Amino acid sequence: MGRLFMSEVVKDGRRHGVMGLTDALGYRLPLAGVVSILHRISGVLMFVLLPFILYLLDTSLASDMGFYKIRNLTSGVFAKLVILVLVWAYLHHFCAGIRHLIMDLHYGLDKHTARKSAASVLAFSLTLAALVGLKLFGVF
Q1: Is the pLDDT of residue 7 over 90?
Q2: What is the pTM of this model?
Q3: Where are the transmembrane segments (predicted)?
């Protein structure tokens, strides 16, 4: 039967165990699951980077010199990409949060509607982030 790990239990001649990360990577999630995981990732990203964002805001509002320092710091391509990722995280988290609130009211819980609302969240947040990105990189 092979070696058993502590998380595995033999019951009825079959192994039952806790699914690991490598097992989870083999599954294809439905779109609603992808949106849910992205909602969590975007929340963690915003939480982790909040002190940095607050530092930038504080420095830029403290004086004219601080404002110019932050403006020069955020004028590079890498900084703009980081800002764009943060904008996407906020927009996705906001849109997915509204979707979850609507689902908490017991609307859109069936499979077809949940898939459409998940696709709408992705489309809307990516479209808005793309527009902000175009503005950020000076296209318009």
Answers
A1: no
A2: 0.79
A3: 37-57, 77-96, 117-137
